[in-house]
Amino acid sequence: MNTELIIAMIFGLIIGAWLMVAGIYIYKIYDENRYKKRLSIEKLLREIEVRNTLNQKIIEVLNRPITNDDQELINPQSDVKIPFYDYNFLKNYTSMYNLYIPTYFLNTFFKNLAHHLAVFDDAQDLKNGGYIFKESRPIFENFSVEITDEIEAKKRELNQARNVFPAMLKKQHYNL
Question: Which sequence ranges are marked TM in the entry (predicted)?
Fold first, then answer.
C-alpha cells in the first residue's frame, strides 16, 4: 500500500473518532439539559398540585355547614370548627409535603391558629367532634387567598420555565 493512503486512512480515523466523541458530548449536554428542564417543570407542577389540594381542604373547612348543636358554641361569621380528621389531615398533609410548601408559611398559619383555639375539656371536645377556633375565620380566608396567590405565581413561573431553553435553568437558580 501507498504511504499516502495509510496516512489518509489514519487521518480519517482520527477525524471520525473526534467527530463521534464531539457528537456524544453534544448529545449528553442536550439530554442533561432536557432532563433538568423536565425535573424543574415536574417540581413546579407538584408544588401547584400540593397547594391546590391544601386550598381545597381549607375552602371545604370554611364552607362546612354549622349544625344546630354547634350554634351555641360557634358564631358562623367569625369562628371555625374543624373536625378532628380534617385537622389531622391538614397537619399530616403539610408535614408530608413540606418540600413543596414553604415552612415559614405553614408555621405562621398554625401559630396564628393556636392562639384562637377554644379550650374545652376532653369530653366536651369529643362531644363537639372537633376543634373550635374562635375569631379565626379571617385567618383561614387570608391563608386561602395567600395560597391562591402562590398558585398563580407558580403557574406564571411554570409558563416561563416551559419557554426557557434548558441551559438557562441553571442561571435561573432552579433547585433540582
Answer: 6-27
- What does the CA dihedral 124, 135, 76, 117 come to, rounded to 10 degrees? -20
Query: Whole-model pTM?
Result: 0.74
Residue where the block lists cell 389540594: 53
Location of C-alpha cell 381545597: 56
Q: Is 157 exposed, middle or buried (0-12, 13-18, 19+ CB in 10 A)?
A: middle
pLDDT in tens, 104-149: 888 888 888 888 877 776 677 667 777 778 888 888 899 999 999 9
Question: Cα(first)–Cα(last) distance of the chain, in Å?
Answer: 57
Grid coordinates belonging to 151: 398558585
Distance, in Å, from the CA atom of 133 to the CA atom of 74, rounded to the nearest integer, reads 9
Is the distance from CB of 82 to CB of 131 less than 8 angstroms? yes
Domain positions in the chain are 38-169
